[in-house]
Design goal:
- There is one protein chain.
- The chain has 205 residues and is of the alpha/beta class.
- It has helices at 3-14, 57-66, 79-88, 99-103, 107-116, 125-136, 152-157, 169-174, 184-189, and strands spanning 18-24, 42-49, 70-71, 73-74, 97-98, 119-121, 142-145, 160-164, 177-179, 203-204.
- The strands form three sheets. Strands 3-10-7-8-9 form a five-stranded parallel β-sheet, with helices on both faces.
Length: 205
Amino acid sequence: MPGPTRQALEAEFAAGNRVVAVATRHAEAGTAPAAADEYNLRLAGLLVFLDPPKSDAAEALKRLNTLGITVKIVTGDNPAVAAKVCHDLGLTDAAALTGTDVDATDDERLTTAIRDTTVFARVSPEHKARIVRIQRKTGGDVAFLGDGVNDALALHAADVGISVDSATDVAKDAADVILLEKDLGVLAGGSPRDGGSSPTPSSTS
């Protein structure tokens, strides 16, 4: 990728935007594309998607923190994007750990890393499930909130798997609880310590 394009890409990531590169290559008519065809591509441009947090997300996170619920972000997104969104929400200014970092860390060190890290980015479904399983060994209850196919393993691994009504069928099937509203405030409002009637785990991802 040319230097100016790489700089533009990094700038979009740093701004918290998601980016898809579009590239082309001539293909013979009547042949189905395959992964092996992904070479000598000509960059056509970048598609930039702005997906800002909900306006009430920061307040909901503050309420969860007040209730003693520690929030961890475990995502497949780009680390720079995840870190920027979390900064905007007031969660952390620390760098994210990536799936590569998780692979290079044994369970003992990962236990410490989970305690000291808020954002895990560019992680696989297996990484998500491993982080959940190791966190459960610390003795605290763990809830995992996810709505995609890639979240199913972690939803199964958690003490409480939470999804939303608009999630993929795979995620909803793996969840123990399905929220009818895609709103973190519902979780905070469901805690007995916040006046609700449903138990809330001490950690959510």
